[in-house]
Amino acid sequence: MAINQPYISEEFKGVIWRLEIDELTDTICIETRDETEKLVSFSSIGLDTGKAYFKELTTEERWLTGIETVYDGVLLLHNFLSQNGPLHKGIIAIDAITGKTLWSNYTLAFETLSADGPIMYETHIHPKRLYLTDVHTGATTRIYEPTVHAELKNNITAPQVIDPAGLTIPLPPFGNSVHYLDYNNYRIVSLHSIQAGVLQQWLFVMDGVGEVYKDLLNTGIQKLQPESFILHKNRLVYIKNKSELRIVKL
After folding, report:
1. Cβ neighbours of residue 71 under 8 Å, at least 6 residues apart?
2. pLDDT of residue 224
3. At 18, is the secondary structure helix, strand, or coil?
4. How far apart, in whole angstroms, are the C-alpha atoms of residue 124 and residue 232?
5. Could you give the strand order of the β-sheet that contains 101-105, starting from the edge strand earlier in sequence?
6. Is the pTM of this model over 0.90?
7. Which helix (H) or strand (E) holds 145?
8. Residue 46 pLDDT
9. How far apart are CA 100 and CA 133, in angstroms?
10. Residue 97 confidence (pLDDT)
11. Residue 105: what pLDDT?
């Protein structure tokens, strides 16, 4: 029996660059980049309802910014120190529901995310000292202690790259490896195939040996594409044509 069609299907103007899921509120935040316009934008969607809270929100910094993390309903963005390097500087906190800026601090930098909140440090103080930070106000509340502030666990499962020789399900001809994941009675497979000389990337969901869902993720591509899907709880999350987010409940 075929599974339902995607309950979330959002297309963006730019390429989907990064996805972050807030485990406390079941919100997914999306960073998209338009290389031609040199414009980065941010979107937020509720995973329970499929409602888009805001879409393609931009900041004062058009390009040198990106998602750091999202926690307890707050999206944390960073700026880049330079367009020529990966170093981050500053934090901008955005309400993940309304899109409003809650606070900003251009001397703080993000280190990691704990179960109690984000861990940050003052960039102008050396040696580096890490602090637990109130995500809603930006106030540093106490010194970070790894034995006290445990790492935040997530519900994300990524597929494994496996040798297709072990698969016993009917699939089109494909290359030397596939991305594969088991969930309940479902077997989820992403693979590349060549049809009429055209390289394509597909996603299949199988129930037993029967196909219950499939989608063409990319076609006419020049090289093998990276891992194309994750599982969050019972949700299959994947990207289609580089700019469309689709989520299916399994």
Report:
1. 22, 24, 113, 117, 118, 135, 152
2. 77
3. strand
4. 38
5. 65-71, 74-80, 88-95, 101-105
6. yes
7. none
8. 98
9. 19
10. 98
11. 96
Domain 8-143 belongs in CATH node 3.40.50.20 = no
Q: Give the torsion sign (CA, 226, 213, 183, 235).
A: positive
Where does CATH 2.40.128.630 sit in the chain? 8-143
User: What's the token pair of residue 240?
Assistant: 């289609």
Structure tokens at 19: 């996805």
Cα gap 241→12, rounded to integer Å = 10
Q: Give the per-residue pLDDT at 192.
A: 87
| Identity at 110, one-letter amino acid code | F
Sequence-ordered list of residues with C-beta below 8 angstroms from that of 126, at least 6 positions apart, any chain:
none
At 54 the pLDDT is 98
Residue type, 200: Q
Residue segments in the chain with a per-residue pLDDT below the cut of 70: 1, 166, 169-170, 172-176
Q: What is the model's pLDDT at position 38?
A: 95
The answer to whether 14 and 34 are in contact (CB under 8 A) is yes
Q: How far apart are CA 71 and CA 218, in angstroms?
A: 32
